[in-house]
Amino acid sequence: MDQTLQVRQAAADLVAAFASNDTARYFACFSEDATFLFHTLPQPLLSRRAYEELWAQWQADGFAVLACESGNAQVSLQGDVAIFMHDVATHIRSAGAEHQLSERETIVFRRHGEHWLACHEHLSVVSPG
Q1: Domain of 82?
Q2: Cα separation of 26 and 94, whole Å?
Q3: How many domains does the chain fold into?
Q4: pTM here?
Q5: Would you list the DSSP string of 28-43?
Q6: Structural domain includes residue 129
């Protein structure tokens, strides 16, 4: 399979796991040393473990992903690294209220043998207009 298609499939698997609120499958898409930069947090998360711990707290507080759709995807291959950019529309429940989010995301994938794992995720708001 073409490397660009492999990266697109890895991203689709990650989004599908997130959309189905499948914690184990979602975090299996990331390398252990993955980092995360989310506009909703005051500082970056510097490991998958740090994000997993925060995710568990969110879920304990009633957080759930109800749906997630990816659009306008672009892939840039850089050797054993690939940059995946897309628009993401997410439907979540948090503290009993449902929210629709429109964001833009960059996911950096790194090749691990025959697989591509996400090693960095950057989520930002979509600017109006």
Answers
A1: 3-124
A2: 19
A3: 1
A4: 0.94
A5: TTEEEEEEEEETTSSS
A6: no
